[in-house]
Amino acid sequence: MRLVAVSETKPIEMLESAYTAGCRIFGENYMQELVEKVEKLDKPDIQWHFIGGLQSNKCKALVDAVAPNVDKLTVETVASTELASKLNTAVSKIETEERLKVFVQVNTSGEDSKNGVEPGDECVDLCRYISSECPKLQLQGIMTIGAVGDVGCFEILSRCRDEVVAALDIPTLELSMGMSDDFEEAIAAGATNVRVGSTIF
Length: 201
Hints:
By secondary structure, this protein is an alpha/beta fold. It contains seven helices and eight strands; from the N terminus they run βαβαβαβαβαβαβαβ.
């Protein structure tokens, strides 16, 4: 189980307090904010998760923020082949043997306001594309934001994971799901990565 402390909009002093208390993984929604915090909170054992919508023209700046140590960054919101390709290109321009860890974002609630691929074939196809066409990316898992109070979204994501694992013939994938209000239910449903912000900060 991995706890991502969602620190978007929080001042660097609060991140430092969380670090002192034991947090080592921080999640940010905005590219520029993550870039600034990486520089200010320069600790060798910190990991950064990008959990917001990412424009393809921002991929290089995001990856460059941690270069050459791209294993310090995970992008949880890959929802298109275009974005995957741009991230792959950004990493390929850095002298590193490491791969960038990514999650495919799935829209399990069907809400228009949520990003992500559709469960089923769309999810499988994007995961296959990353695995076969993006050698600088490491497909770590799939993620969802889900609808507030709807734990059924966790079940949908779990089924998606099973479909991808079977289609790609791989051992397993992680599940990133659950936030401050429902992380316990998400863990019970098999989450390996929870994103908790307000409960911590």
